[in-house]
Specification:
This protein is mostly helical. It is built from 8 helices and 2 strands; from the N terminus they run ααααααααββ. Among the domains are: 3-87, no CATH class; 151-246. The protein has a two-stranded antiparallel sheet. Strand 1 and strand 2 (258-261) form a beta hairpin. Helix 3 (33-52) packs antiparallel against helix 4 (58-70) and helix 7 (132-199) runs antiparallel to helix 8 (205-247). It is elongated, with a radius of gyration of 57 Å.
Length: 279
C-alpha cells in the first residue's frame, strides 16, 4: 500500500457520520469464515502503518484496499447499510435531544415544586398559632366524652354487681329457710319419737337413740357444707369485682389544659366472712 493509493481513497464517497468500527464488524460478519483471516491481517498491518506514520489515514487505507480482501458485493452491501444507518443518525440525535430537553423540564418542575413546599413550610413556621385554642377545646370535649363513657360503664358495672349480690343473698336465704325447715321437722320428729318412747316399752330405747344421733350428725354435715358453699360464692364475687376494677382503663382528666390521673377505686365493704358486717 503506497501513499498514492491512500490519497485516491480519500476521494471515495463516504457516508456522513460514518462509523468505521461498526462498518468493519458488519463486513466481518458478512464474510465467509475462510476470508476473515487475511482481512484481519490486512487491518492489523494498516494499523501498524498508521502508528509508524507510513500512511496518513487509517480509514482511507481501509476504504481503498478493503474490497480486495472482502469482495465488491460484500463491501458494497456493507457500505450501503452503513449509509442507511448514517442517514438515520440525525433523527436519532433529534430524538435524544428531545428526551434530554424533557428531562431538563421535569427536573426544573421538581425543583420548583420543592422550593414552593419549603417556602410554605417556612411561612407556616412563622405564622401565629391560631389553631391552639381550637385544638384545646377539641381535646377537652373529647375528654368529657371519655369521662361520660367511663361513668356510664361504672354505673352499669355497679348495677350488675348489686344484682349479682342480691341474687346470691336470695339464694342463701332460700337455702337457710330450707335448712331451718328441715331442722324443725327433724326436731318435731324427735320430740314425737321421744313422746312415743316415753309411752312405749323400754325395749327400743338404744336403737332409737342411735338413729336420732345419726340424723343429727347428717343435719350438722349439711349445714357445714351449705356454709362453705356460701363462703366460696362470696369469695368468688369479691375476686371478680377486684379483677374488674384492675382491668378498668384510667382516663386522664384535663383541668385548665393540664392533665391529671383519676383513680377509679372504691372501698369494698367487708362481709361477715371477712370479719365485718353483711356484704
Amino acid at each position: 500500500m503506497n501513499v498514492a493509493q491512500v490519497n485516491d481513497a480519500r476521494t471515495l464517497r463516504q457516508p456522513p457520520e460514518f462509523d468505521m468500527q461498526s462498518f468493519l464488524l458488519d463486513v466481518n460478519k458478512s464474510m465467509p469464515t475462510a476470508q476473515r483471516g487475511p482481512f484481519t491481517k490486512f487491518i492489523s498491518k494498516a494499523q501498524d502503518d498508521r502508528r509508524s506514520g507510513r500512511i496518513p489515514s487509517l480509514t482511507a487505507a481501509i476504504l481503498a484496499n478493503g474490497p480486495r480482501y472482502v469482495g465488491d458485493a460484500i463491501w458494497s452491501a456493507a457500505m450501503r447499510r452503513a449509509g442507511e444507518k448514517a442517514a438515520t443518525a440525525p433523527a436519532q440525535q433529534q430524538r435524544h435531544l428531545r428526551i434530554q430537553t424533557r428531562l431538563a423540564q421535569l427536573l426544573r418542575q421538581q425543583k420548583e415544586a420543592h422550593d414552593a413546599a419549603m417556602h410554605r413550610a417556612r411561612e407556616k413556621a412563622a405564622a401565629p398559632l391560631t389553631v391552639g385554642p381550637l385544638l384545646l377545646a377539641a381535646q377537652k370535649q373529647k375528654h368529657q366524652q371519655l369521662q361520660l363513657q367511663q361513668a356510664e360503664r361504672q354505673r352499669q358495672e355497679k348495677e350488675a354487681h348489686a344484682q349479682q349480690r342480691h341474687s346470691l343473698h336470695l339464694h342463701v336465704q332460700i337455702q337457710l329457710a330450707q335448712l331451718q325447715r328441715q331442722e324443725k321437722e327433724a326436731h318435731d320428729a324427735a320430740m314425737r319419737r321421744a313422746r312415743e318412747k316415753a309411752a312405749a316399752p323400754l325395749t327400743v330405747g338404744p336403737l332409737l337413740l342411735a338413729a336420732q344421733q345419726q340424723k343429727q350428725q347428717q343435719l350438722q354435715l349439711q349445714q357445714a357444707q351449705l356454709q362453705r358453699q356460701q363462703k366460696e360464692a362470696h369469695d368468688a364475687a369479691k375476686q371478680q369485682k377486684q379483677q374488674q376494677l384492675q382491668l378498668q382503663p384510667q382516663v386522664p382528666a384535663i383541668i385548665d389544659g393540664n392533665e391529671k390521673k383519676t383513680e377509679n377505686t372504691q372501698p369494698l365493704r367487708k362481709s361477715k366472712y371477712d370479719g365485718g358486717g353483711e356484704a
